Amino acid sequence: MTDSYAVVGNPIGHSKSPAIHAAFAEQTGQDLSYDATLFELEHFAEQANAFFNAGGKGLNVTVPFKLDAWQLADVLSNRAKRAGSVNTLMQGKDDKIYGDNTDGVGLVRDILANHRGSLADKRVLVLGAGGAVRGVLAIILAENPQSLVIANRTVSKAQTLADEFADLGRVSACGFDALAGQKFDLVINGTAASLQGDLPPLPDGILAADSWCYDMMYGAQETVFNTWARHQGAAKTMDGLGMLVEQAAESFFMWRHVKPDTAPVIAKLRAQLS
Ligand code: ATR
How far is the CA of 130 from the centre of ligand 1 (A)? Predict the structure, then answer.
């Protein structure tokens, strides 16, 4: 019987996950179906349980249900515990529901493997302190950056995250103004500002020579953050399309124990964007 998977969210219409997983399945010869399913707000658990009770093998979970998925899982991976959210659910052979978060691995693998970069010993700045940032901090810190600064419009939220992750490395928090005079080797934009075409109010001159900038968002056009980065002299700008495909690949691996080749899938999606 064909194993069935789905991505669930609200809204879900524009999800690229079905195309990504179809490409992975074809490439690796896996017999599976993967749909995009709109879940009603307020009823995540009933709908997810119904999917698994009907024999569904795994779900990708997107906005706004990642916290609901975290609560639903019987067993959480360590990185999902840290992230406080789950983007991948799997029905185990023991009938337990396993929850994982592959976003952090997606981001770091995109920077390391696809862009041949490094986080080790780098001065890293992360912009934002919402769910997207919380989801990736542990994996960034596992790469041993020299330091990690979390800057956010609401400083108290950045401080809460810095305190929560302090056991994993040198993490501090501040507002955007306080960045003036500091230099960073890698700046990662995890604010929702780019969704509205907004830019956090960043001081000039915070990019070190040869610094890289990464926007977790992506689009057909260069993001406002990456335009800012280029004007500030960034040596390289990257967007979140590779992260999207890499987090999907990690989910696929969790479910199927096969690692797909992400490069052709990223290239195909990139071509379809423009
Ligand atoms: P997500 O799940 O995408 O992280 P979130 O948890 O609502 O969404 O967090 C949104 C993040 O984007 C927050 O860090 C938010 O800053 P505040 O904590 O101060 O609200 C940030 N953000 C959203 N719009 C912004 C803007 N126009 N300028 C700067 N930061 C913005």
Answer: 6
Task: Note the pLDDT of residue 195.
Answer: 79
Q: Which residue has a Cα nearest atom 5 of ligand 1?
A: 130
pLDDT, tens only, 4-37? 999 999 999 999 999 999 999 999 999 999 999 9
Check 16, 57, 66, 259 and give the catalytic one: 66
Known catalytic membership, residue 66: yes
pLDDT above 80 (res 264): yes
Question: What separation in Å is there between the alpha carbon of 234 and the centre of ligand 1?
Answer: 23
State the Cα–Cα distance between residues 58 and 65, nearest whole angstrom.
15
What's the pLDDT at 224? 96
- 22 vs 176: CA distance, rounded Å: 41
3-state helix, strand, coil in the chain (%, to 5): 40, 20, 35
pLDDT score recorded for residue 266:
98
Query: Burial code of 159-194, b = ≥16 C-beta within 10 A, e = fewer?
Result: bbbbeebeebbebebbebeebeebebbbbbbbbebb
End-to-end CA distance of the chain: 38
Retrieve residue 235's tokens: 């040596």
CA of 221 to the centre of ligand 1 (A): 21
Mutate to test the pocket of ligand 1, among 66, 149, 191 (most ligand atoms within 8 A of CB): 191
Nearest CA-CA partner of 5 in 25, 173, 14: 25
Q: Is the pLDDT of residue 197 over 90?
A: no
- For ligand 1, residues with CB inside 6 Å are 128-133, 152-154, 157, 191-193, 198, 200
What pTM, to 2 d.p., does this model score? 0.97
